[in-house]
Amino acid sequence: MQQDTQTMRNNDGLFAVGSPVTHWSVQTSNPVQYEIRACENLLDPGNSTILEDASGSSGQRRLIVTDGVVDSLYGDRVRAYFDHHGVEHRVLVLNDGETHKSMDAVLQVTEALDAFGIDRRREPVIAIGGGVLMDIVGFAASLYRRSTPFIRIPTTLIGLVDAGVGAKTGVNHNGHKNRLGTYFPADRTLLDRSFLATLDARHISNGLAEILKIALIKDARLFDLLEQHGADLLRNKLQSPAAVGPTPADAPVDQRLAARGLHLDPATEVVERAIQGMLEELQPNLWEKVLERVVDYGHTFSPTIEMHALPALLHGEAVAVDMALTTVLAERRGLVSSYQRDRVLDVMARLGLPVWHPLCTLEVLGDALRDTVRHRDGKQRLPLPVGIGSALFVNDVTEGELAAAAESLAALGSGVSR
Q1: For all residues of the chain together, what is the average pLDDT?
Q2: DSSP 8-state secondary structure symbol assigned to residue 146
Q3: CB 393 within 8 A of CB 387
Q4: Taking Cα atoms as reference points, which of 333, 332, 325 lies closest to residue 354?
Q5: Shortest CA distance to 194 belongs to which of 225, 226, 240, 263?
Q6: Under 8 Å CB-to-CB from 89, ≥6 apart: which residues?
Q7: CA-CA 20 to 30 A from 78: which of 52, 111, 337, 407?
Q8: What is the pLDDT averaged over residues 276-286?
Q9: What are phi and psi of 244, to 5 degrees?
Q10: Mean pLDDT, residues 129-154
């Protein structure tokens, strides 16, 4: 008997083929909605923002995950906050730093979730820390009972403008940067810039590298802001004028207007433009179905450089070295003028970022490019700047080009002081 190959549609998205059925096809979608909110004074006991999604006034429980540095700075305030609101809680303190970004840390979080016994729908895990901490907690939350909601409260600039606004989680594995991970955005990310006041200058610079990335590939106005105000942003740790004292009468006009609330002060505009630019790129391609992503600028060679250099280079510092190298590469191709190249390197120096590293050897860079090709489905898909504020993708960078660009950068880097 000839098999009936008629397709039967049972309901939207479910198809059965044949009689008897020999094939089923399932089509579904996974809508995603998450919130990023700028806040102030999150740890003020009178501010209930962290608990806004609580299911009721009683029976609230929270597992809070942080790291040793953040706990030493804010641990007492965190515990006092939840005590004030009558929330049963436990604080898990992880080791800090990129060298501890591992599956062992993820398993520590999952074991703490088991020990605390959270309700996986009504009691979101709260991550308070930098990008490393948030990646670990997000990864653990994505695995625990296959999905457990979590809230991110970044305490570093790189967490605030980069790691805290996307959907990716991950840990380092087998000598590779973020080799294991998932796509699992936090339900909410709460951005409180007052946390930045306790960072040292190097960690402010670290985050400014990711802001500079957005400026170079899509926002010339943001680059101008960094060029004009970079030193002040670094010194004042991106606090608004009201947070760093009264505005002098001879201050620049934009600062005086900002102090009177007439428009955004430079720090606020820089952070807002960086986050907006990042989200504009992520939102239509959250699951990275399209592998040509301009936000991968600075992330072709930097993962390998960073892992080889650990713990000497922070993530943003490695990204800066990558951007400096690819700026020179773009200049050698005629995509960037020598004047624009010098502006970029000068801004990097002004932001306290390195423009060169001894690991910029052909061996390391060649290995990095080959690993990137495997990661990007067989093509380089390498973003290069076009002037300042735009970019294109190339697939034909040669080892000879890399060697020449690295040599040029080494000579230029010797004349650029941080």
Answers
A1: 91
A2: G
A3: no
A4: 325
A5: 240
A6: 61, 62, 63, 64, 79, 82
A7: 111
A8: 96
A9: -115, 10
A10: 97
The closest of 397, 357, 361 to 376, measured between CA atoms, is 397
Query: Token pair of 261, please?
Result: 């609330």
Residue 59 · residue 121 · CB < 8 Å = no
Which residue do the tokens 């309700």 mark?
A: 119
- What is the b/e burial string over 404-418, where b = at least 16 CB atoms within 10 angstroms of the residue's CB? ebbebbeebbeebee
DSSP state of 59: S
77-102, pLDDT tens digit by residue? Answer: 999 999 999 999 999 999 999 999 99
Give the pLDDT confidence score for residue 416 in this predicted structure.
Answer: 64
Cis amide bond preceding 383, omega within 30: no
Three-point CA angle 336, 340, 346, nearest 5°:
135
With beta carbons less than 8 A apart as the criterion, state whether 359 and 305 touch: yes
Residue type, 222: L
What sections of 51-200 are H helices per DSSP? 68-84, 103-116, 131-143, 157-158
Task: Please report where in the chains the tokens 């979608």 appear, as a residue.
Answer: 29
Which of helix, strand or coil describes residue 239? coil
Active site residues: 168
Are 171 and 104 in contact, with CB atoms under 8 Å apart? no
| pLDDT tens figures, 345-359 | 999 999 999 999 999
Torsion of CA 226, 228, 232, 233, to 10 degrees: -20
Instruction: Please answer whether residues 393 and 381 qualify as being in contact, where contact means their C-beta atoms are separated by less than 8 angstroms.
Output: yes
Whole-angstrom Cα distance, residue 168 to residue 178?
10
